Amino acid sequence: MPPRAEVAIGPDRRVTGRLPAALLREAKESGPPRLAVLLDRAMIGTIALQPCPEAVPGAFDFVFPLPAHRLGWRLDLLRLSDGASVLAAPLALAPHHRLRLLAFGWSDGEVGRVVAGAFRLALPYDPALQVEIVAGEWLFGRGFAQRDAAGLYRFAIALTRLAQLGAPSLLTPVIAGAACDDVSLSLTAQDIGLAGYVDRLTENGLHGWAADLARPGRGLSVRLLEDGREVARASADQPRPDLAASGIGNGAGGFLLPYTARPLAVFAAPPALRVVLAESGHELVGSPLPAPVLPGFTGRFERIEEGVAIGWALNLADPASPLEIEIVSRKEVIARGLADLSRPDVEAAGLAGRQCGFRLPLPLNAAALTTQPFAARLAGSADVLAGSPQRAHANPAITAFIKGANRRLSARLAARLQARLAAQTEGLRLSLVMTVHNPRPEWLAEAIASVRGQWAGAFELVVVDDGSTDPAIARLLGEAAADDCRIKLRRNRRQRGFGVAFAQGVRAATGTHLALLDHDDALTPDAVFRLLAAAAASQADLVIADAALADEALDNVGSIIADTAFSHDAFLARRTMFRPLLFITRLARAALPPDRDWAGAEEAEFVLRALERARAIAHLPRVLYRKRRHLLGRAAALGAAREEARRAAITRHLARAGLPARVMPGLVHDQCALHWP
After folding, report:
1. Which of 328, 396, 486, 523 could bond 450 through an S-S bridge, CB–CB 3.0 to 4.6 Å?
2. pLDDT of res. 27
3. Does residue 638 sit in helix, strand or coil?
4. pTM of this prediction exceeds 0.85
5. Per the structure, how many domains does the chain have?
């Protein structure tokens, strides 16, 4: 027989024992091993085991007190590793506390008949112990037994529930959690002298009856409690022919307690409804019951458009509090956000809530390529919105770009390709200017890797570290510059601002052409070659290419920002994303704005000044840049102030060009509109 624990209970309620170490061989807890303590199959805590003295090697001791306020019949100890008991059988507690019920019956109390009793215990427990009077699953009364100087516990408990008519109910005591099923007390409605039932619940409220059996002519009143709070009161005086036919009361004990179902708050439990006699507080037969409720929310998952999950969800219980929505695919949450966008159409449909829309960007490499359905649900729940599931319709441009951008060349093929491209761009060199200030190191590493992985080697990367305080940034930049002579590093000991750092990078550039790269974005492998080749073929001063807009993971592409033929108005009104742009270096230097605070619009000022000086502009219809969309960059930090500064820069540009258009906010964030006279 396998070894088992030795357990004993002392007269002070302390449980002591010894446990062979073999019983813990499967345990994997860190620190001292522990056991779970179960009292009548309910866990009450854990205990730590202590190694035995050297005289008894390979064993553990434990000691803990039994609760002072609660009795029990069985004690068990379980391993935390697998839930297995370390005892041969649960330890019976009755022989230790030796509960002796000396009396249990009816007694006359100050408020009528009560259930009274007395008992003794062999172990020292609290001077006041809770006693419940039950019949099956119903609680008829609750109170406390008080211990006197002689150690005798006494209780007298008034009943708080009415009994059924007909067959008697058998009352038994539950003393400090220990059910005493070997004694019982018969209870009928006549013993209380009152009767009452909740018959049914309708859309109008709760119907039932109540009667005084001892004084049939006395009228009674009833109260409706919702989670303990009174919400309605009525007199039990409506005609009830069925009561009259049965000889109960005076035949006029019916009542209707009005109650209207309300939307249930998300994650809330339905309130409990209780019907009690107003005079005595007795709860009627058929009470409590769960309140009828209406759905706490409504909404719809409407569609997936350009990798964005679109829909609405309204909190009916509290329309001012937006709901959090999750988008789920393959049982995995892939997007989460609040339904707090304006939806006037929902309000116009008669629902009391306008701010209930959601637009949740998905990890769009999955949205573009997967055939799996997507569902929208309340965050943290299984409540799925109507309209689920939706499928993302693949965007061919995104699909093609992702597959092409992630294509890897063998070392041999890459060397052959570099040699061929070098011949086609002979005499040209691209200076990539990057300003850096405390980006995420992994994002900066991605940006640098995208440059070093170019198929054409005719480039230099000019990095201006504008006073980064993260040691990881200095280390990463230093190692990159040491590994690759094409990386030129400039450092500012303190942060001087984007405009100054940007101008330093432009002035340090030595290539024939210049382009900008954010410290958290990336180039496609063919970017340098295609930009230089386009500049050579077009002889343009300014070359514009297309970009992919991604989320924090650059492979999660949400949209392609593509231009057609160059349009001055469209260029000014577009979102503030001036990449990728290729400049002739001398033009870029001439376009540098004067040193001053441009309130976050330094880049816009520079690009617009370059635009004014360009004699020819070309568009290259190719995605060469991956822009990371997140909440940590300069644009997000400057927010509305940056938008205003950008509009001011465009206004200055129009004034220099002698154009009379007014610059106004656009219909969506990050765009502007031109109003011409």
Report:
1. 523
2. 47
3. helix
4. no
5. 5
